[in-house]
Design brief:
With 71 residues, the protein is mainly beta. The protein contains no helices and seven strands.
Length: 71
Amino acid sequence: IWIRGLPANADRNNVTAFLGSMELDVDALKVFDAETVQVNALLPETFPAGKHSLKVSAGGCTSPPFPVEVV
């Protein structure tokens, strides 16, 4: 997940990712540039295929839902 606007202290312990209502395990954050961070989150093998909404939360703020498709 590429995201902009995370606080400077964002790390895998204070960033959460949700696919639908399931909280994903954030594995790593990698800084790409001054504004953009790559958030790696693990999806369980048993997660159902189909269209879902992805949201990321940090510092008390949550992104708008973004449509994704799990295949």
